[in-house]
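Subject: Sanity check before I submit

Could someone independently write out the structure tokens for this chain? I want to compare against mine line by line before I put it in a report. The sequence has 58 residues.
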Amino acid sequence: MQKLKLILQAIVNRGRRVWLFPKFVAVAMQQRRRPPRLDANEAERLDRIRNPSKYHCK
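---
Independent answer below. Compare away.
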């Protein structure tokens, strides 16, 4: 009887995994979205941080 119970639990667990797999894939795809594009001001700010010698005031 114990073996039968374990087998049924394994089947139910596999069924849950199969049932939830499409949702798991959809969530994973949403999390892999591309980062938003930088606007011109933000790009310049980052360039100033990365290359301060280009913007050295005299």
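---
OP: Matches mine. For the report I'm noting this point. The mean pLDDT is 88.
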